[in-house]
Amino acid sequence: MGQIKYQLPPDEVLAPGHFACPGCGATLTMRYALKALGRKTVVVIPACCWSVIDGPVPYSAAGVPVFHTAFETAASTASGVKAGLDAQGDHETTVLAFAGDGGTFDIGLQALSGAAERNEDFIYICYDNEAYMNTGIQRSSATPFGAWTTTTPAVSPKAEKKKNIIEILAAHRIPYLATASVAYPDDMIAKIRKAKDIRGFKFIHVFSPCPPGWKFEPEDSIKISRMAIESKVFPLIEIIDGIDYALSKEPDGIPVRDYIKMQGRFRHLNDEQIGIIQANVTEDWERLRAKFAPTRKVSRSRRDESTGENKSSQTRNVTRTKNARKRAQKSRG
Amino acid sequence: MPKFKIRNGNQMIAEGAIAAGCKFFAGYPITPASGIYKSMIDELPKRGDVAIGAPDEISALAFCVGASQRGFKAMTATSGPGFSLMIETLQYAVMTETPLVIALVQRLGPSTGGATQGGQGDVLLAGNAIGGGYTIPVFSPSTPVESFELTIHAFNVAERLRTPVILLTDKEVGMTSENVDYSALPQSGIVDRKLFVRSNGETYGSYRFLLPDEVPEFAPIGGREKVTVTGSAHDKSGRLQKNSPETIEVLRHLHEKVVANSEEIIRLDIDAVDGADVIVISYGVSARTSIEAVAALRAKGERVSFCNLRTLFPIPEKEIKKAAGNAKKVVVVEENIVGLYRTQIERLFPDKKVSGVNAVGKMITPGDIEKEILSKN
Ligand SMILES: Cc1ncc(C[n+]2csc(CCOP(=O)(O)OP(=O)(O)O)c2C)c(N)n1
Ligand code: SF4
Ligand SMILES: [Mg+2]
Q1: Which CATH architecture has domain A25-332?
Q2: Are B163 and B311 members of one domain?
């Protein structure tokens, strides 16, 4: 048994007693995000499972102010809140837009693109459970090829590939872009903290399993998250300025089949279809791999060290380019 | 022989749509309307027809406009928040005389409101969604059977008048399952839009009519005729013009073709009692409750008439007045705070007492209605 060396920040900003299903990845994502950002945070949430998970007012579990906004408006509302804080001289409070995949990849994409293009100074976390879960598991453009949802039934499962939101955001050349997973809280928390220290638009795409929507047992949430990484279905990466790609964890390269077999939403797939998924994953991985520039190891900021993060666990090849620094200085002014 | 199946209003809207010849559905999830999306996804592709998931409601309705302009009967389904997003495209559909049907399954509003709570708060929003005050037909079923019947009627009216039509239901009507006797489902004829057939030398105009209440003949875009689809003010052939006499004529026609044909549109359920003292008027889920209250009072010897407003717009003024007869009191029952539709009824009866039974965030009970019917003021 390996020794657990990493200590999560102890403050539980997200209180127990929320309304999520057991094993909910979206809830763990919020828990870690709030640990990373602390209590001086305003969270902007559009319609999604998280509009329910927080609990009915006044029984909010979140421990920070929550701005429940209209479905398509997370990034716009967050822009407004940030502008308001700035105008009042509050440059300390962090604004976090926290949205599902439907509210990010689909109906909220326009608002998101606008905020990214304007390089708004807030963090946008998309917890991706790969469907519209709150309304009863309908397909979104984040639903992967071959998956069952109530609107992509097993007789004709989703025929299209998942939309590549990371490349869309990278094309906006935002200062900080990362993927994260509930299987690696240390990595997720470090990335969110780093995002907090960067001025401008930050986007973090979090793989968030959903037991009822993906049809697996709640206790397998973390295992499935890990398998998504190891099978290269969901690589953990960082992208600076939309250009400098870095890999956060080298995947073992297990077969995609192992990941798929854990989930009822893929139960109907035959070998040929699984073969297509494997081929897609391999192709996407090769393309991604080609983007990793030779990176230099940079010393961690003091902030990271103060968390007691295990230095030997993963070497994060993070480069902060000149460009990013210039941009950060510009937007600070 | 009765043939029963358990069905809810949403399922019967989907079945009605298919029976009416709907071949295109674009959906976006939203409680309490998602059942229609799901049913159409399950059914249409089997028939070689199209059901797709849109990335938002603006797209869902715009998909329908596009499909309808190619000649397909098209529908979408939503609830308050999604309908709000659709309004620009709905206006576009009016301006372009595009037949389509929107099922608007109401929930508690405004805004996100209560996704799993019922409500009847969108009635005037639906009826008055068009700038300039143009009327679009709004039908309001109160049972699964009515949902089926009025969906077919909605498509027929949409096709006949080249207009968008709203099917306004609510969470209870949409999501409550009941016994439906399929052997007794009302049989209605199916109406298709009138197609343009070219005769010698004639050219096509997308919006051509002679009398203002006439409906222009349809030709699909990308077909043999040169079709212009435009939301800008236009003349009869679709040329952009601000205020030429012909453009003004087209604008008047958009109003006339609905209003002058209202008799074709209007369907009501009137259960009048000779010499009634009171008439109860209601629609949707509240009509169901009203029926119970009226029956209970009649059993006690009260003379009460009842009108189920299966058509909300154009407002069935003549029919409502006739049903009310000499009743001194009109009671309008609906699940919203201020009595939205009551405001439309009040002006019909300057000499009668018009009162309301209203609720918000909860259903009205038969007891609430009985009390109001019997109250002396
Ligand atoms: C304009 C509008 N359309 C539809 C809805 C209904 N709606 C609420 S939550 C939701 C699903 C959200 O999906 P996602 O963003 O992926 O978050 P999840 O529910 O999966 O957590 C939908 C469709 C709404 N509230 N507003
Ligand atoms: S449905 Fe899925 S995302 Fe929503 S609360 Fe349950 S586990 Fe979480
Ligand atoms: Mg989702």
Answers
A1: 3-Layer(aba) Sandwich (3.40)
A2: no
